[in-house]
Amino acid sequence: MVNGSSADRALRVQTALIQWGHVLLPDTATGMTSTVSAPARPRRLELGSSRVALSAVRWQAVTGGLFAAAVSAAGSWIPSFWGDEGASVMSAERSWPQLFVLLGHVDAVHGSYYALLHVWIRLFGASELSARTPSALAVGAAAAGVVVLVRRFVSPRVAGISVLLFAVLPRVTYMGEEARSQALSAAAAVWATVAFVHALERGGRRAWLGYAVVLAAADYVFLYTGLVAVAHACALLLSGSPRRTLARWAAATGLALALSAPLVYWSFRERSQVAFLETLDVADPQTMLVSPWFGSIPLAVLGWPAVGVAGWRILRAVRSRSERGRRDGGARARRAGIPPDLGTLALAGTIVPPAIVLLVNVVHADFTSRYLSFCTPFVAILLALAVAAVPSRALAAALTAALVGTSLVTYAEQRTPYAKDGGSDWSAVASEVGAHGRPGDAVVFDERVKADRRPRVAEHLYPDDFAGLLDVTLRTPYERTTGLWDRVRPLSAARAELASVPRVWVLRAKQHPLTASDPQERELRRDGFTPAAVFPVHRTVIYELTRGTP
Fold it and tell me: Which of 10, 19, 62, 550 gives a 20 to 30 Å CA spacing to 538?
């Protein structure tokens, strides 16, 4: 009785697959899947033709999402905030009018994320754990999207491998503990791809309109995420999809672009914000081959061959399907086309956006490896397809273990106090100031390093530790400016404030020690202060100066 019921369910699923036009059969020669028999109008893939099957997909998506979110959230409170996160938190802590003024001058591309973080911080505070939790949740949403996407084509096993590898990829575990928009962009990219597949299955205006709306939302999360639409087009072209499908894609993408027009306009106006990339050698083997997804050379050595093998098999399978369609279906099959399969979508999502960014970078500097974070779901799927193609289960398990184990080495390094931005130590600096400073003391910051590395940012990210201290060089607080950071004045303009101060704390970058020849020390000596103690932290040194002779 049980066996008969299972056979009936299998028959119903197979029938639904044939109706949709995707007969997915294990190809023992290639280790990939084959697609045959494409009708003129593909129908929806009814994974839910049985409630049990649909429930299984949902259960795997939920558990996979929770697993990935937990991996990213674990230890996320350990590393100190750094400059980019400072920009996020400080922007989100502005009032709504102040935030809108800011976005009219800088960071419009991050406006949606800042608005989300504004609400989140109002509810849960701005600690490292709190500010980074939305990113961990976004990683979970992306992982759930990976399951839904993969299960529309292949087995639960491949979906499980995809989620496992996605959850531990170093770029994913980094953006999952980062108060920035990259994790949201990855979730937006994979769910836009789910919407794209749904539109191909349904074929109706409502489905394509839904795709356009999701794609526009992805643009507002992070503008580069919109490049996933070009990857979708390339997947259609590789699969030999008919012109009417390409026309529908073009119409939906055009609508998404129209909906995103305000963001595109303001981003173009603020393009000078990334002008610093022109002064950096950011497109090199490390940033192109290691940093975007793998995080370490050992993992890149393992990962790129797997991606390459998967890509080669996918392209070979595409060619085989195309030839089979021409041979078996003739002109009618060519008009109907063959919808993209999972491998084609994953390959396009991995290769096309980076290629576009790097090509543009030749003319106008626009590349940094974290901008490609939204490609990580497709990289994980390619890796999973490569693992699934290994003929021996034991070898497949060994490859998976090697990929996971190598990733976990980087994961452990990411969860250390000084893991971000080459050693950001603002949390420890704030703790030292909080432990030794007293209300009425003054604090003076090193202003010679670039804005997003200045120790004064710690004052805003860890305000409790600086409570009662006088920031004597502050001219205009950041929230009252049209930019991201405070405006300051020279120490010589603060003599009146220093007159009644018993102690001064000077926070300097290690490369700018406070010496007798330093202008700030000379100014403080002139006002009666002499060095009393030094507290080295990591890349910051704290100097205590008190009134009187040493």
Answer: 550
Q: What does 49-93 look like in DSSP terms, one character per residue? A: GSHHHHHHHHHHHHHHHHHHHHHHHTTTTSSPP-HHHHHHHHHHT
Q: Find residue 534's DSSP bridge partners.
A: 543
- Separation between Cα atoms, residue 31 and residue 33, nearest integer Å: 7
CA–CA dist 424, 79 (Å, integer):
8
Q: What are phi and psi of 339, to 5 degrees?
A: -60, 150
What would the 3-class secondary structure string for 287-335 be?
HHHHCCCCCCHHHHHHHHHHHHHHHHHHHHHHHHHHHHHHHHHHHHHHH
pLDDT for 366 equals: 73
Closest by Cα among 101, 547, 393 to 114: 101
Q: Tell me the H-state helices in 125-181.
A: 128-151, 156-168, 170-175
C-alpha–C-alpha distance, residues 385 and 158, integer Å = 7
Helical (H) or strand (E) element with 504: strand 503-509
Residue type, 517: S
- Cα–Cα dist 473/447, whole Å: 10
**Tokens for 268?**
């173009």
- pLDDT tens column, 309-320: 899 988 888 887
Task: For the chain, give the mean pLDDT.
Answer: 87
Confidence of residue 21 (pLDDT cuts 50, 70, 90): very low
Closest CA to 218 of 277, 145, 162: 145
Give CA 278 to chain center in angstroms.
Answer: 22
Residue 497 to residues 303, 389, 443, 463: CA-CA distances in angstroms? 58, 71, 11, 20
Helix H or strand E encompassing 529: strand 529-536
pTM of the model: 0.87
CA distance 39 to 236: 16
- Cβ pair 345, 219 in contact under 8 A: no
